[in-house]
Amino acid sequence: MLNRDEIYDFLKDEGSGAVEVKELVRIFDIDTEDMAEFYDYIEDLLESGKVMKTKKNKLIHPIKMGFYTGKLMTHQKGFGFVRLEEEGEEDIFIPPSKMAGALNNDIVLVKLVRKATETQKNEGEIVDVITRANSEVIGVYQQSQSFGFVVIDDKKFNKDVFIPKKFSGSAKDGDIVIVEIIKWPKEGRKPEGRILEVLGKKGDPGIDIISIIRKHKLPEAFSTKILREAEKVPQDISRKEIEGRRDLTKEMIITIDGADAKDLDDAVSVKKLDNGNFLLGVYIADVTHYVTEGSKLDKEALKRGTSVYLVDRVIPMLPKRLSNGICSLNPHVDRLTLSIEMEIDPKGKVVDHNIFEAVINSKERMTYTDVSDILEGVEDDRLKKYDYIKDLFKNMEELALILRKYREDRGSIDFNFAEAKILVDENGEVTDIVKAERRIANRIIEEFMLKANETIAENFYWLNIPFVYRIHENPDDEKIETFNKFLYNFGYRIKGDANGVHPKAIQEILDAVTGKKEEHIISKLMLRSLKQAKYSPENSGHFGLSAQYYSHFTSPIRRYPDLQIHRIIKEFLAGNIDEARSKALEAIVVYAAEQSSERERIAEDAERETDDLKMTEYMGNFIGEQFSGIISSVTKFGMFVELPNTVEGLIRVMDMDDDYYIYDEENLRFIGERHRKIYSIGDPVEIVVKGIDIDNREIDFALVE
């Protein structure tokens, strides 16, 4: 069996030097049956820049020749940073003059010209572009008599694209267009392109969201082939499909979800046992029964990786016939599930569990609002019909609070950010922005899903079967130390030891700042100091949850990793994982983890950009109007103020003209030179909306005199 990690570690090892390919074959005793995979892997290493060839055609790791490989992250001012492939290596700063025509997100080969000091970062120059990130970009066409330019929407691209007249197509001045890059930039020369498609005029209804969708290359519709395959999926369950499954159709199982949710992929039940323990059942839509490995639906789901939730639309991972139909655990109809039932003691520990295939019939389709109202004692005639299951909700609440305390005691981190809920009409226009509710029913489902995900991960870790885990690595010591310098201004410090920081130390800081005026900025910067969670075939634990084992099991309708591990779980339950299948699964879970992590990042970027866009557009309706807000952060160029609806705007220091204000960097505040007026994080202020910049997603505020 080919061990890719061992081969790469050997090439990376300081003592290995340059080596011929045939020598690697001998060293690692590559079997004939593995030879094709071996050569494919070597080709992948060369194409990604992780390995280079010397003049004598030998393989060598770039670091041994003074080079590094990484992804370029550019700034609209022209400079950039290369985020290195090697774990633990610091980013390398690239000045504008050393870009060598590289663009945002390109994979580049970089030479280190100056090592980092206490006051300066690593500095380097790009010597080659290994992989171009974007051959197609989106922007606004600007026409002249004999040629044109496209100003790219992505400000990090920071170069206009030159369009020869013969390549302008039907584009007119002011059109939003998609451009194919046909010549990449060089020193002193802009990139050159051809217009592929005209999307519409800047400012046309809906064109803003379409631009974001195209910019992030999100799939807009399913192909005819995919829809045709989905049409073949029956919308009813046959007797044969139920054979061998546990029949839970008579059990009190319900769904609890958002009022506007249509893809219901989880249902729950809770019982109190005679021994004082709880029996928690989590029943997840058996999507893999309909989306089989290697099918067109499966390949499309893997390609998409996740459903994307934009402000005014959902781009689903699966066609609606499945996601809203036969896979959705709709009430009063039989549905197939992959299920886990856990016996949990009064302290929150799982003492026994059982994983199995079942058929259920959800008794009620509950909303978070209704369940929360019932548990909070809201008197409402509409809720009387649920009196017969009020005790069920009380048992759920009791168990959820136990599980929450169990997590808190071990150090699980809980960021209590206020999230925005952007409300739009049928035309996609924002009607209101409010804080999203996170009430007791939301927390109940959150705790139940966390426990199911954790229990599944631990079970399959000890079975030593290829699996997709959800991991969250420990934070870098350097980032924590930098954050501690910031915390010093407020009298706090994250405690750690030789083994690093424990998540409980993070939570202690969050608890200490709760209700304080600095809570918002500390929570926000703390989150940025932590690494991003991702999917991995290796289980390395989840720092944020303080969990040794974690996976994503509960949302196979909208996340591919859940779909993939459902397939593995069902194969194991059926006794179909032998040595050959296990080997095949190893490659499958590696790709599924990498692809899903990448698609998740893209989806998050698109969702964030759409939110920023709609918030900016919405605040354009209130120019000249006054609001109360809280200073959320202070920088040398101004103060950010957050309104009660979570919208943030900037008050530029140049506009604070009632005094000359000095930026006190150490204490993150502005001090008026004459009147000694102080503005610091957490202070309440009255602002007026001064203006908006749709292109840059910026909102400008001014202080009320």
Structure characterization notes:
By secondary structure, this protein is an alpha+beta fold. It has 16 helices and 33 strands. The strands form 10 sheets. The chain has a 5-stranded mixed beta barrel with strand order 3-4-5-7-6. Strands 10-9-8-11-12 form a 5-stranded antiparallel β-sheet, covered by helices on one side. It has a 5-stranded mixed β-sheet with strand order 13-20-19-16-15. Helix 4 (207-215) packs antiparallel against helix 16 (579-619), helix 10 packs across helix 11 (440-462) and helix 12 (477-487) packs antiparallel against helix 14 (519-529). The termini are far apart. The mean pLDDT is 90.
Please write out the topology.
Blueprint: H1 4-12, H2 21-27, H3 35-48, E1 52-53, E2 59-60, E3 67-74, E4 80-84, E5 92-94, E6 107-114, E7 122-131, E8 136-143, E9 147-152, E10 161-164, E11 175-183, E12 192-201, H4 207-215, H5 224-231, H6 239-242, E13 246-248, E14 255-257, E15 266-272, E16 278-285, H7 296-304, E17 308-310, E18 313-315, H8 320-326, E19 334-344, E20 350-361, E21 365-367, H9 368-375, H10 390-410, E22 420-424, E23 430-435, H11 440-462, E24 469-471, H12 477-487, H13 503-513, H14 519-529, E25 534-536, H15 560-573, H16 579-619, E26 626-635, E27 638-642, E28 648-652, E29 661-664, E30 669-672, E31 678-680, E32 684-693, E33 698-703
Parallel strand pairs: 5-7, 13-20, 14-21
Antiparallel strand pairs: 1-2, 3-4, 3-6, 4-5, 6-7, 8-9, 8-11, 9-10, 11-12, 15-16, 16-19, 17-18, 19-20, 22-23, 24-25, 26-27, 26-32, 27-28, 29-30, 30-31, 32-33
Structural shape: globular
Fraction in beta strands = 25-35%
Domain unit count: 6
**Which regions have little confidence, pLDDT < 50, spanning 5+ residues?**
none
Helical element count?
16
